[in-house]
Amino acid sequence: MTRHVRRHRRSRLVASLATLALVLAVVGGIAVALRPAATDAALPSPGARPQVPSATSTATPDETPTVAPTPEPDAQLTIVAAGDVLPHLPVDASARTANGYDFGKLLAGMDDWVAGADLALCHMEVPIAPAGKKPSGYPLFGAPKQIAQALKDQGWDGCSTASNHSVDRGFAGITATLDAFDAVGLGHAGTARTAKEAAQPQLYRLERAGQTITVAHIAAAYGTNGMPIDADKPWSVELIDVPTMVEQAKEARAAGADLVVASVHCCVEYQTQPTAEQEQIDQQLADSGEIDLVIGHHAHVPQPVARLQGGPDGRGMWVAYGLGNFVSNQDAACCVPETDSGIFLTAHVVSPAADPATGAKAGPARIDMVEWTGVTVDRLGGHRVHALPDITDGVGKLSAKQVAQREGRVAKAAGHEAPERTIPVTPTGPAPVVVMRKG
After folding, report:
1. Per the omega criterion (within 30 degrees of 0), is the bond before 139 cis?
2. What pairing do the DSSP bridges indicate for beta strands 211-221 and 202-208?
3. What sign does the dihedral 253-265-164-388 (CA atoms) show?
4. Mind listing the pLDDT tens digit for each residue in 77-132?
5. Structure pTM?
6. Nearest-angstrom CA–CA distance, 18 and 20
7. What is the set of domains in the chain, with CATH numbers?
8. Which residues neighbour 409 within 8 Å (Cβ) at sequence distance 6 or greater?
């Protein structure tokens, strides 16, 4: 509470006596008697501001007050992830231009959702076709190299690349994919061109509220559809092995990672409920205490979002068992209806500020909560991708009724443990630094 210094009013009698005192200067004691009592507040000099003692000051009048330092706010950021980037040949045809391919027009409906994130991680389901080779589709995929630039332009920072299609075009396809990613500045995890590269985690560094927060991304797949991985390059595709993934997470933390995100490509397609194998893998990762978030792929349909026991500090670990498709040519015409949609996952990270007095943090960076948003593809309308909350009245070849049906299916699959998000997030700071893996 602010304290005010009040001025004393003197009576008319006091004023008269003061005048008399000036005339009768020899009676100096009268003037002394007329001063305010010692217990009253002293009058400030003209124009002087009253001094207000600080509530936190312990200084005496002759000392400089000690002011407590202002604490920094907690650092906050978001990580987003989406389902399979699966460019079948009809998808390539929709992106075809007179001079090549423009996948940006297919993805444009998600621009705000991706660009608003602080860190955006996609899943490149298929390899890029090697130089001089034509793009191809199912069963042995090879995407046009322009897909890498389109993903970067939209705002993705990196992708997991371990999948059952990783070696569809042999080791040359792995090389072509990672070369294309490097050329545009996209990070990558799950495949490698050298053993040295395979041993390095993909790191992303973000500056927030005076802190540097480093996120590591690791990835693995259940297999390669029977296609052989070169015998002399076993490290070129990361296959699921929980102890190995846990060790990778530990190494990533030793390299400075505050958070570890694991992409797991497994297990049965076109099934909403996770398999027992999925649940076992993800629970073991949670039990390790080294993984902050698990992102699932391969099923091509949305699967539940859940919080498992375990995780760092025993505070639990979020898992999206399967994010379904991001862009593909799948829907009820070829597969099951649920393949026309996917989940766009938003994870919120909080990193406590350091104590300004001691410099110690109250705790490490952790994922505070996650949210899901339904995503769908207008296959008949040129394979355009949209966030379902954005198109409730229908869009392109999709009616409002179809949109509502897809929204209902995604919501049912995602479950009730995480809330739905219906608007994009906004960046909390500058874009991340992608720490490129070196071979």
Report:
1. yes
2. antiparallel
3. negative
4. 999 999 999 999 999 999 999 999 999 999 999 999 999 999 999 999 999 999 99
5. 0.84
6. 5
7. 76-435 (3.60.21.10)
8. 302, 337, 338, 341
